[in-house]
Amino acid sequence: MIRLNVPLVPDENILNNLFERNIYTVNDFLQKKTSNLQSVCNLQCKEVTKLKDCMTLKCSSPFMNGCQFYLNRTVSTFIQTGIIKLDNILDGGLFAGNIYELCGPSACGKTQLCYSILLNIIITTKKDIVYIDTKNKFSVNRIKQMLKNKCKINNEINDILNKIHVYSILDIYKLITCLHGLKEKLEPIIFIDSLPALYLSFIGFDNNDGLCYINHICSVLKYLCKKNATIMITNLAVKNCDSTNDFKPAIGKYWFHIPNTRLMITTKINQQQQMCINITKSAYTPLNEKCILNIDNFGVS
Hints:
The protein is an alpha/beta fold.
C-alpha cells in the first residue's frame, strides 16, 4: 500500500489532518466517504473527488485491453520429448514456461526417462540443457551407450555431451544459488534430478527451515517460467497411509500444487522392463491419460 505524501495531497496541513484521523495510505483515503473528507481536508466536494481521481490514476496499474494483452503475451512453444507415446498424451510435448514433475517410487526409471528426453531434445533442437544432479549419480557411460545405440559416431557424441551442462549439487543452499544464476539464460531447459534428495534432510526438525527453502525454490522456478523456461523435476512417490495404499508425491502438501503437470510413474516388469506413465495433474491435458514405455539399451521409448 502506498503511504500518503505531499505530492499526492495538496499540502502538509492536510496531510497532518489525515494522519490524525488514522488515514495513512492511499487505500485508506479512497475508502473514506467524500463528505467525511471534505471537513478533514477543508476542501469542496469537487476538489476531493478530483483528488481521489488523481490518486487512482497515479497509484493504479495501467489499464490494458484484451488485444494489447494478447500482443504482449510471451510466445510459448512445444518442445517434443522425442518419445511418441509420451508426446501424444502431453498433447504435443513439453509446453515452454511450465514445470513438469516426474513422480514415482525409487528405481522406477525417472532418471532414465530424463536422459532419453534431454538427448532427444538436443538431437532435434541443438539446444543446451541444464542438468542439476543432486545425487551425484549422473552417468556419462549410460548417455554414451544410448547415443551409440542411436548410431551416433564419436564426434557427434562429443558434440551432444558438450551441450549437457551438469551441476552436481549436494545441498539445498547451492541449489538456490544455482537457480538464481540461471535467471539470465534465454529460455533455458532445466532438469532437476532429484528435489527430495535435498529436502528430506530437513524432515523431523521442529523449525520450518525446509519449508522456507522449498518456498524460495518455488519462487525462483516460477520466475524462470515467466522467462519461458521449461523445467522438469523428478520427485519421489511415497505410499498413502490410508486404506487406498496409493502413491503420492513426497515433499508435502505445499509442493503438491507447484508443478503444472505431474506424471506419475509405475513400473511393469514382463518380458522386458516397462514403465506406465499416468497424468495425474495438468492444466492443459486431460487427466488419467496413460501410456506404457519400454526401458532398454536405447533408453526409454
